[in-house]
Amino acid sequence: MKDWRYWLSAQQGTLTAVAIFAVMFVIYTANHPAGFTANVVQTAANKGVLLAFVAMAQTLVVITAGIDLSVGMILLLTNCLASWIVIGTPLETAMGVIAVLLVGALCGAINGAIVIYGRLQPIVTTIATGAVYFGIALLLRPFPGGSVNEDLADALTGRLFGVIPSSLVTLAGVVLVVWIPYSRSVYGRAAYAAGSSETAAYMSGMPIRRGKFLSYTLGGLIAAVGGLFLTFFTYTGDAALASGNAYTLFSIAAVVLGGVSLFGGKGSAIGAIFGALAFRTIGDLLFVFDFDPIWQPLFQGLILLVAVSMGAIALVRVRNRLEWFL
Amino acid sequence: MSETGTVRMTERMPSFVRRLDRAVVIAFACIVLLLILGSLYSSSFLSPEYLLQQLKVASFLGVIATGMMLVILLGQIDLSVPWAVSTGAMMACAAAAYGDVGAAFAIPFGILCGVAIGVVNGLGVAYLRIPSMIMTLATNAVAQGAMVVYTGGFSPQDSATGAMRFLATGSMIPGIPNVVIIWALVGAGMVFVLTRTSFGRCVYGIGNRERAAYLSGINTRRIVLIAFAVAGGLSALGGILLAGYASKAAQSMGDAYLLPAIAAVVLGGTSIIGGRGSYLGTIAGVILITLLQSILSVMQMPEAGRQIIYGLVIIVMLLLYGRTATER
Fold first, then answer.
1. Among A245, A290, B73, B144, which has the minimal tally of Cβ within 10 Å of its Cβ?
2. How far is B261 from B281, CA to CA, in rounded Å?
């Protein structure tokens, strides 16, 4: 086999996600009353980017064969924190942004420490830490409110040179600064290897623990970027349990759509980003087709159900029935 | 060295103590500790009325946690609890609107809807081999969507039938609320199934290693399907009882039961990766969670503080006994 074939089979999930998104987005813009204009793209980008950050955060954890059910709560916590401290002079705002990112990374690091060094299962751990993070968010903002540096918010949710949505530029920046160095580092490879087979990775002397710990920490950091953006869109902080749970749920859906295996060791954050954008576009499709908004949850649920059932196609290729059981 | 010390100590204990799981003992010890701490705050925490009231509140969670336990024993998880609960409640109330015939079939119909959700979960997990976490999330989303369409996004106007109210609030035997009896019956049934039937042994077998269970000739896929169906039905039953308690169904009535149900099962020593756990532990977990919530709300702890303490208690207790073996 040639090199490009290996590359193709490794990137299969990601490329499928890109294709799904492209098809959805073409249908969406073709039927949108305003058509393919900078405004439509900007609105779509702003809605999608938020979920894309959360999905990226989820991917980093899922790669290690874990799951982060607290990712929506980290988003809420950083959102509530940002509505207090990301304000004032440019210097104060910058310090605020750094503090919010550090708090997000700390949340992820706590998850990682409990899972790796405390040896608890990721599902229960992140359910419990999620409750704690939500509690802290509620302490910070018992009622929706607060404010944010509006110059920065408008700059990051507006357009660059009048055409490119700056939220997309930020997303690309995070990919370049966090994801690419991570996935090419020894620790990133160790996280992939640990997700694929922890025993084999251990036997090969890979730094599994540090790799997994880094994944959880970076996951928290990226969720905090999402929290910052949520604040920039809404100008307020709001600790709403339902919205936190929805982001967690959608992040898992986006990860699956993006071709990342929930069993770990397979997939990329790029795929998850396109999975997130595709998932958002599917939700918006209903509006351009003038459906009653009441059908939206059912429609999204059915799409999700169909999307996850597509994983079953692989069963057709199974020759030995024992491969059913992982 | 400490390991041999514990072994020697347990050997000296009477046999019935030795058979108990460490997790169950710790969970019951925590219940006693909570009651003592509560009684320091107010003596009414030890009154029979308060304890019976707590048992009644715990019964709703107990019924739901029973189904969750069955699924967790398989090494799977059921995240469709919130809308299985709401669907059961709403459909039972909806059937009640169709006159006497509807009222008579309200409870079976509600449970049947829950079973249907469970069957979809089971088909996806057992036959399509989709990870249970994402499969049950998806059915939860579909159930939610269907209910939103059905109710138009508002709380439904139908109210619970007399039978539902009687089951949830009445007491057939004086002094013992009906829900407690229902939980006792459901629990007794589960204990019987888990310890005395081949189905129960299959559940533990699959939870330990599905591949080995399959090679032993167990139809593992059918067992998983049945387990999910039962879990869905029990969630719906919990919803029906809740609807009877509040005399109507509400949109988000099930949301408050997912995490407590998982927490109760896991705090009771059932391994989240499956194959290990006893129903006694789940009882302890359910009572522990209910008491914790009740005492925190009696102390007028704000919601934020309750969430934080709740999360911390789960983590600390699991760090005490829920740790997995090291990889080496």
1. A290
2. 13
